Amino acid sequence: NLKNSISNIENLNSSIFETNDDTNDETAAEKKNAAIAYSGTVQLEGADRPGIVHTITSLLASYGLSIETLKTNEGIIAPHGGTTLFEMKCTAVAYKPLAKGFDTTIVQSKLDDLG
User: Fold this and answer.
1) Cα 11 from Cα 79, distance rounded (Å)
2) Residue 56 in contact with residue 96, Cβ under 8 Å?
3) How many whole angstroms separate alpha carbon 72 and alpha carbon 43?
4) CB–CB of 62/92 below 8 Å?
5) DSSP for the chain?
6) CA dist list (Å): 21 to 6, 27, 35
7) Cα–Cα distance between 51 and 56 in angstroms, integer?
8) CA distance 68 to 65
9) What pLDDT, on a 0 to 100 scale, did the predictor assign at position 21?
10) What is the distance between the alpha carbons of residues 2 and 39, in angstroms, rounded to a whole number?
11) Cβ contacts of residue 32 below 8 Å, gap of 6+?
12) Of 26, 29, 1, whose CA–CA distance to 16 is shortest?
């Protein structure tokens, strides 16, 4: 099945959830929002380098965060020095129940350590 096939792909981090296709008074968006326990914005800018999006999203995933929205700008040349810059803004969410010990200050610190 698809779940097993995806799980067997090397170097791929994935989360697969089975859902019910029931219909009732709640919309899909209301169900999704009801399950969000944490939502925060991550905004980064700095020197561009290969694999930067992978590094950041993998770090967020390792703390149980999913990317809900993601926007990047790359190839911007710094006005002084000519360095290629990278900008990223995303919304990261954690769904209920939050992992024991979930702490956004640790995530922030790990993002800061990336440079």
Assistant:
1) 37
2) no
3) 10
4) no
5) -HHHHHHTSTT-------------SS-HHHHHHHHEEEEEEEEEEEE--TTHHHHHHHHHHHTT-EEEEEEEEEEEEPTTT--EEEEEEEEEEEESSPPTT--HHHHHHHHHHT-
6) 21, 12, 16
7) 9
8) 9
9) 52
10) 29
11) none
12) 1
pLDDT at 103: 92
Peptide bond into 97 cis (omega under 30): yes
Print pLDDT tens along the chain (115 aa): 777 787 788 877 776 655 555 544 455 555 555 588 999 999 988 888 888 889 999 999 988 899 999 999 877 787 877 788 889 999 999 988 888 888 999 999 999 888 7
Distance CA 11, CA 67 (A): 18
**Closest among 54, 67, 70, 56 to 94, alpha carbons compared:** 67
